[in-house]
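pasting for ref
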Amino acid sequence: MNYVYEEKMNKTISVFEENLAEIRAGRANPAILNKISVDYYGVPTPINQVAGISVPEARMILIQPWDASILKEIEKEILKSDIGINPNNDGKVIRLTFPELNEERRKEIVKDIRKLAEEAKVAIRSIRRDAIDEAKELEKKSEITEDDLKNEEEQIQKLTDKKVQEIDTLLEKKEQEIMKV
């Protein structure tokens, strides 16, 4: 039974990691483009499937489409997205230059990621509650003993503590990355 709930907790952590990857820390990170798609011959296609994306400098992303005809479309979609960076199109490639983050903006970002971390922890605790409820239901139906129930609850709690600790570790690492000057 724990396996199913552990998978759910792992999925929650995975989503949290994806959210963290999309947060700008003053350094160029191609993951910021993950949710942006362009209309490529009538099909919404992620930018990384229609262009080469590289990071030539610490604060710059270079997007080089394999088909030059979609350069304008990529530029338009980046402008429509909420990444807060204006693309610089030279006719061959698009450059995204990330400004240096000031102290106030860094603190704002840290506050945002702490909120994301708390949401992930709430989701983990919700999964724990579901697991314990299921164990109690099995005990009520006499499918497991009272001792089995206590054992199961302990295992679920240990798993929950471990996953919450993983979230805290990821949060701390991202905070350090953002606050580094």
